[in-house]
Amino acid sequence: MVATLEPNSTVIPAELMRDMPLSDEAAPLLASARNPRDLIDKLLSLGLASDAVRVLLRALPKRYAIAFVCDCVRKSAGIKPLPPVDAGCLEVAEAWLVDDSDAKRREASARAEAAGRNSPSAWAAAAAGWSGGSLAPRGYTEVPPPAHLYAVACFAALMALAAADPRQSKATLVTLINRACASFGARNA
Asked: Left (φ > 0), alpha (ψ -120 to 50) or beta: where does 165 sit?
């Protein structure tokens, strides 16, 4: 269970989303939402699924968000194997979930960059790579990633998954949001 997503959470949505802006249509809802779950519900009721995904990903702890994205990528592939580059990206992101060492994080970042960050798997690897540590190469002054950067990569991964069928993209996002809320124990308000 993720307390941030519970209907009785006391997390203030405007603070949570300070560094990851919502669309012009969604931004006014920040002031009236009681908590992230309330905001997600309001966004979904207005058909603003991509904004709801942003809130979901910021509400989840980093590891949960990245694990969720990896699971979504894995499930979207179904029984069809991923292309080798994508399979490698997904594997390194999943390996980081097991061993969040700096070496695994850097490997995920390098794999995402080599893949051009142009697939859901590559974005999953980027999320792991941007989860902490330093963005600078070894031996240089450390440059920590912005706290929300992993969520930006997770968002790109989920949007790319949804874009696979443009006619169903909004429905796909709603399905993913509902699955995340069910997986992490958040009850509907």
From this structure: beta
Q: Report how many domains make up the chain.
A: 2
Cα separation, 76 vs 4, whole angstroms: 26
* Range(s) of the domain holding residue 94: 63-68+80-163
Distances (CA, A) of 118 to 29, 40, 159: 31, 27, 11
For residue 180, the Cα-to-chain-centroid distance in whole angstroms is 11
pLDDT in tens, 113-123: 999 999 999 99
Is there a single domain that holds both residue 113 and residue 139?
A: yes
Q: Do 87 and 110 sit in the same domain of this protein?
A: yes
Residue 178's Cβ-count burial label (10 Å; 0-12, 13-18, 19+) is: middle
| 185 phi, psi to nearest 5 deg | 80, 10
Distances (CA, A) of 23 to 28, 39, 73: 9, 13, 25
Residues 6+ apart with CB under 8 A from 102: 133
Instruction: Give me Rg for the CA atoms of the chain.
Output: 16
d(CA 47, CA 26): 10
Condensed to tens digits (0 to 9), the pLDDT of residues 2-14 reads 999 988 999 999 9
Amino acid sitting at position 164: A
